[in-house]
């Protein structure tokens, strides 16, 4: 398998605090990679360096061989990276279908038009994405009135709109009911495998992580301390010490 | 969060407000030897204050000190130099104090977008209720209104026609302001800048450049748009209340330049004798022309609102984070919106100028900007037709009240206060809610 995302020697310090130190990993097409670690381990910092919101002090981030360090989030999206946020970010005053259509229009470079009417194009594409995430029946509703779990699904549909090679999901199931969590990640895993999308996600729910991830990497105080299959990580004494067997 | 920690926010904010007011009052008292107390003091100082906070960096007291000294010294320097003869041109630096302030701000913001000592603004997640979805007015209703508006001069007298001309100008002005502050989510406290600049552009192109009236009317929106290109470039870099501050500062700077530049703009007297061409000299004909120009302007803005571009603006207002994450260059889109509404507000100003035959600096004043805000809020910011209703009622009310009493400003304020208290969502917003409730009760 070829690596879609390759991260080498990522460093980031805030003031005197080394938030991320020498982090390297890779994600392959169709693979679900979970990035876990206790609070403050540097997961979000790590994430924000991959999606362009933060500039690393040092290190290389390659997307299908291309260095994407220094690119803006919108440029990284254009290269085929979809994102979902820890706290959902959707367009609350627009309808569910319109939200997905926004992403599709943007992908096609058709958002500049001032005189066309929005909404006629990409209807079937939007509906196809919505039915994949099980939100087609709510396509006409405004995003502002949706339940939180449904918003997460809409976000997933939007993240898939540009036919991404890589999905970055920051705490995709935070704030959801336990049942919904596994369902959403099963859905994601199914889509990822079918389309050969590489998925990198952070997650607090260990049920989700150990049932859905192909591989897991563990971050503690800014450094990767372990990596491997769920079984390997589960039995890793270092992980048990800082994380699972927990001193907190 | 602060409330959860047991802090009484009402008390906290009131005391901060109190301390701020004390300091501002002290500043005012201390500067008395420089400039005696007068009614215009507030507007003169507010633009300076905004520019200094923006230059220094929002939230940075040290930055504000630094910026105040920098701008103060630069101004003093300009006045000290006085009039200089450069290559045969006489340049009066003492009249350039406002321009200098603007140039310093421009330079600082280019190099340091968050001001001298400021920090980047945190991405705000809006916790408030999302704006309701917009509904496009149907062709049928629009057509009915056009027929009514065309028919009115046939049955009404000259006075009504002139009042209606005013109303359609202000309607376009209010709709352009609503476009930028509602769907685009950028509150402008200085929207009169574009209205006034359009009016002045029309007047000056007509008087100083000697262009025919029709050409002046067509070029004026482009001039206003050109200013919006410059002002907007800075404004879209900020958001929320800071953006509003900057728009106000730009409006005030425009006003000051127009006011100070006697030889070109006529200073406080304004520009006189800007009358429409012979074929439009009749008030009724001019009203039809105004109706056509402003009606098309409003139709264009509404059309844009429902285009992919308009949806992008609404999306960017709802979630800048998500907009960026789906490849949208939000600043670019907002900048373009700024220019569009600037040009159309300029068109409203130009049509207004030719209807009055003269234009004075009050068209750019903060009072004019506030009038625009009142029109939009009176009608309801969450509705499309609200701004038009607001503009009509405000303009009509002002005219009625002004004819009847000397204290029209006070009476106007009182009436508006009552309306706003009765209909917090504006007249159209309130009516919509009433209709909805009535329907629910019947169902």
Provide structural commentary.
The complex is a heterodimer of chains A (248) and B (443). By secondary structure, chain A is α/β, with parallel strands linked by helices. Chain A has two domains: 3-80 and 164-244, P-loop containing nucleotide triphosphate hydrolases (Rossmann fold), CATH 3.40.50; 96-163, no CATH class. Helices cover 35% and strands 25% of the residues of chain A. Chain A has nine helices and ten strands. Chain A has helices at residues 43-50, 73-78, 96-107, 123-132, 148-159, 178-195, 206-212, 230-234, 237-244; strands at 3-14, 17-28, 32-36, 58-63, 66-67, 81-84, 166-169, 198-202, 215-220, 223-228. In chain A, the strands form two sheets. Chain A has a six-stranded mixed beta sheet with strand order 6-7-8-3-9-10, with helices on both faces. In chain A, strand 1 and strand 2 (17-28) form a beta hairpin. The longest helix of chain A has 18 residues, at 178-195. The radius of gyration of chain A is 18 Å and the shape is globular. The termini of chain A are far apart. Chain B has helices spanning 9-30, 41-56, 61-81, 97-111, 139-155, 158-181, 192-207, 213-235, 240-260, 262-265, 283-305, 308-318, 320-325, 330-356, 366-379, 386-404, 408-422, 427-442, and strands at residues 83-86, 89-92. Chain B starts with 8 loop residues before the first helix and ends with a helix. With 443 residues, chain B is mainly alpha-helical. Chain B folds into two domains: 30-111, no CATH class; 139-399, ABC transporter involved in vitamin B12 uptake, BtuC, CATH 1.10.3470. In chain B, helix 7 packs across helix 14 and helix 8 crosses helix 9 (240-260). Chain B is 70% helix and 2% strand.
């Amino acid at each position: 398998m070829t690596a879609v995302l390759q991260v080498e020697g990522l460093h980031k310090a805030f003031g005197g605090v080394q938030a991320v130190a020498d982090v390297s990993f890779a994600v392959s097409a169709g693979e679900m990679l979970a990035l876990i670690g206790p609070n403050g381990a540097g997961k979000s910092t790590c994430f924000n360096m991959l999606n362009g919101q933060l500039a690393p002090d040092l290190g290389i981030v390659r997307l299908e061989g291309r260095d994407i360090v220094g690119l803006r989030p919108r440029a990284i999206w254009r290269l085929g990276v979809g994102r979902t946020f820890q706290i959902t970010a959707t367009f609350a005053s627009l309808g569910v279908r319109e939200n997905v259509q926004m992403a599709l229009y943007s992908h096609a470079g058709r958002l500049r038009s001032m005189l066309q009417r929005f909404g006629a194009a990409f209807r079937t594409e939007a509906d196809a994405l919505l039915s994949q995430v099980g939100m087609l029946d709510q396509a006409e509703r405004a995003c502002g009135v949706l339940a939180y779990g449904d918003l997460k699904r809409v976000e997933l549909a939007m993240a898939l709109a540009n036919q991404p090679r890589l999905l970055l999901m920051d705490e995709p199931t935070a704030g959801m009911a336990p049942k919904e969590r596994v369902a959403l990640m099963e859905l994601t895993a199914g889509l990822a495998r079918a389309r050969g999308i590489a998925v990198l996600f952070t997650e607090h729910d260990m049920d989700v992580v150990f049932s859905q991830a192909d591989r897991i990497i563990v971050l503690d105080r800014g450094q990767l301390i372990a990596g491997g299959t769920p079984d390997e990580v589960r039995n890793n004494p270092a992980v048990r010490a800082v994380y699972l067997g927990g001193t907190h | 969060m602060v409330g959860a920690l047991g802090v009484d926010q009402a008390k906290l904010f009131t005391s901060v407000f109190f301390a701020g007011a004390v300091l501002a009052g002290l500043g005012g008292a201390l500067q008395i030897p420089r400039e005696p107390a007068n009614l215009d003091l507030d507007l003169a100082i507010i633009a300076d204050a905004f520019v200094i906070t923006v230059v220094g960096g929002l939230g940075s007291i040290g930055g504000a000190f630094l910026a105040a000294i920098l701008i103060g010294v630069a101004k003093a320097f300009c006045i000290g130099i006085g009039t200089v003869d450069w290559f045969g041109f006489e340049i009066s630096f003492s009249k350039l104090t406002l321009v200098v302030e603007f140039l310093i701000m421009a330079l600082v913001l280019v190099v340091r977008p968050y001001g001298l000592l400021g920090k980047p603004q945190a991405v705000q997640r809006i916790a408030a209720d999302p704006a309701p979805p917009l509904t496009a007015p149907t062709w049928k209703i629009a057509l009915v209104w056009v027929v009514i508006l065309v028919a009115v001069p046939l049955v009404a007298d000259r006075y009504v026609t002139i009042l209606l001309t005013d109303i359609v100008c202000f309607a376009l002005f209010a709709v352009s302001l609503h476009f930028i502050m509602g769907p685009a989510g950028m509150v402008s406290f200085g929207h009169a800048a574009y209205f006034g600049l359009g009016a002045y552009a029309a007047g000056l192109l007509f008087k100083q450049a000697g262009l025919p009236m029709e050409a002046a009317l067509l070029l004026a929106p482009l001039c206003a748009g050109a200013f919006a290109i410059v002002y907007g470039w800075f404004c879209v870099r900020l958001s929320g209340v800071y953006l509003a501050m900057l728009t106000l500062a730009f409006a005030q700077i425009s006003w000051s330049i127009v006011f100070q530049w006697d030889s070109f703009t006529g200073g406080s007297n304004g520009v006189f004798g800007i009358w429409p061409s012979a074929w439009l000299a009749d008030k009724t004909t001019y009203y039809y022309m105004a109706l056509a120009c402003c009606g098309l302007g409003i139709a264009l803005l509404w059309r844009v609102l429902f285009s992919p571009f308009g949806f992008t603006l609404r999306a960017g207002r709802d979630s800048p984070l998500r907009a960026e994450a789906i490849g949208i260059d939000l600043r670019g889109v907002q900048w373009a919106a700024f220019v569009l509404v600037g040009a159309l507000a300029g068109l409203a100003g130009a049509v207004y100028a030719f209807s009055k035959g003269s234009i004075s600096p009050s068209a750019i004043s903060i009072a004019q900007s506030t009038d625009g805000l009142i029109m939009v809020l009176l009608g309801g910011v969450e509705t499309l037709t609200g701004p038009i209703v607001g503009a009509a009622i405000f303009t009509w009310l002002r005219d009625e009240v002004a004819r009847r009493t000397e204290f029209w400003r006070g009476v106007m304020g009182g009436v508006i206060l009552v309306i706003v208290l009765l209909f917090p969502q504006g007249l159209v917003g309130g009516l919509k809610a009433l209709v909805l409730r009535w329907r629910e009760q019947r169902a």
